[in-house]
Each structure stands twice: as C-alpha cells, then as structure tokens.
Amino acid sequence: MAPPRSVSGSVDVSESSETSATSNVVIRTAMTEEQLNEFILSCSKGVGTLVHTIEEEIEKLPEGVQSQDEIESQIRYLEEENEAAAAELKQLVAAVRSVREALRTAYREAATDGTRITID
Which residues form a coiled coil (predicted)? Predict the structure, then answer.
C-alpha cells in the first residue's frame, strides 16, 4: 500500500474550468482514518517481521564471534608468548655460535696437531 497523501476526507472527483474543455478529469485521493490505521498497522507488522528475522539471523552467528576485550586479551597473551619465544631463540643462537666456535677450535687443533702450522 502506498503512503497516504492526506489524512482527511474521501475521494474527490472534480473538473477544473481549464480542463473541462478537454474533458480531463482530475482525481484527488485521500485516505480515510480507517485506511490510514490499516496502513500503519501493515507497516508495523512489516517492521515486526524484520526485527524477528534479524533476531533469528543473530542467533545463527557462529559461536566464535568474540568481544573486543576477549580479542585484546588473546593478543596480549600471544605477544607475551612471542617475547618468550624470541628470548629462547636468542639463547639458542648463542649456544649454536658457541658450539660452532668450539668445533672450529677443535678442528684447528686436530688439523695442526704435531705440526708447526698455525691457523687463525
């Protein structure tokens, strides 16, 4: 149903003096109070249907949807874990360098043992 043009009156059919010569009829429509009430009721039913549909769709959203606080908490936890892993990685790199230097030293000593060769 189209929105009302006017709240008052009924249907008017009149001929203007200018249009009577050409036999055109001007029709002005107005909704009765009952028609207006029906229009408002049908609109409110449509809104109610939309609200109901939205509520149903919200219920279908996945459980994985998290609040901003939960997401920020997880990010903080992951940042802490990342920092701990970075510290462990630095320790591992230092240990590997130490082992590599020890192997080089052992190889130099083994290669030059009993000789007068010096390797820097």
Answer: 68-102
Q: Please indicate, yes or no, whether residues 77 and 118 belong to a single structural domain of this protein.
A: yes
Residue 108 lies in a domain: yes
Q: How many Cα atoms are found within 13 Å in the side-chain-facing hemisphere of 94?
A: 6
Same domain, 83 and 103: yes
Q: Which residues, at least 6 apart from 27, have a Cβ–Cβ distance to it below 8 Å?
A: 11, 12, 13
Residue 50 and residue 70 share a domain:
no
Instruction: Tell me the C-alpha to C-alpha distance, in Å, between residue 7 and each of 11, 14, 33, 38.
Output: 11, 19, 7, 13
pLDDT digits (tens, 9 = 90+) for 32-74: 888 888 888 888 888 888 999 999 888 887 776 778 898 999 9
Give CA–CA dist 99/97, Å, rounded.
Answer: 5
The tally of domains found in the chain comes to 2
